[in-house]
Amino acid sequence: MASRRILQRSRRCDFHTPYRNSTQLFSTSTSRCDSAAAAAIAAAPQPKASPNTDPAKPHTVDPRWLTTIKRRIGKCLMFGLQPAQVDVAGSILQQIARDWRELIAGSEGFLTGDTRRSVFRHSVVWGEMDVMGKSVIYNARLLLRSKPEYHKIGHVNNVTYLRYAETARVNLMRNYAMHIDPAHKTDWLNTVGNKGTGLILQSIKLDYKFPMTWPDKITVYHRLTQDPSATLAKSFFQQEVLILSEAKQRPAARCLEQNALYDYKLLRKAPSPPAFLLEQFRRTWELQEESKREWQQRIADIENSVRTLEVGSWDREDAVEMLGSASKS
């Protein structure tokens, strides 16, 4: 029963948990969750060391990592855990349900705070769907009497992903203007206008990861792909765009944008980057590297905790599955 309640609680946390920015999660809620998990692990019976229990090293996540880690925890719960171990499993599931965006995006260096994200939980609407065609299926034996059945197969139109990326790029510049560097508000707003130094999208490459469908919600993040100190000297910079599907909890698409700095007063490529832009992009690059280290370590901690549950349950030498009342018969 405890295992079933834990799984039900994790499902409820998935979509409708109110979002809190990554700073709050890192400093308060998550730290309490991690300390409780660590205390429960310490109190639980510890298995003997074995060659396959080496601590996980920090790394970025596989697109299906969330699904895999949930299945591993589910296997431990179904096999049977001690009460302290059930608490650990519940803490891990709650952390994943709350922080899944940060675990996926933050571990790659994307900044996920509320002043850095470009689009947050935007609803995919039916009008963005693309009907691929109609397949007519006939019953061969009743060809003259039966009516054809029409099956529509659709997904979000390919062009829509580009619109998501473009909207996110403009929102990112507005974030710099309104929240990150309000002292240069006008200059940042001009980057998406035709006054002062603007940004011209030179090229964009889009990789589709799976066909997204309605209903769904997307969150979009940006990150610099190169140290801006080098690229901005040549009046261009590259950004990667990550479009996350909430229904699948994994990337739906990735874009690579190359932007050029254009001087609308001189009507040519900007000879040098503005000081305000160079300063903020340097700071953004530093924060990206910090985010990558922090969330990769979080992933390693989760994997170590899950591995401890596995070795303490079904993967120990003397493991015996808990069958409840059935074992007495």
Automatic annotation (TrEMBL):
One of its GO terms (molecular function) is fatty acyl-CoA hydrolase activity. Pfam families: 4HBT_2. Residues 42-61 are annotated as: Disordered. Coiled coil: none annotated. This is Thioesterase/thiol ester dehydrase-isomerase. It comes from Talaromyces islandicus (Penicillium islandicum).
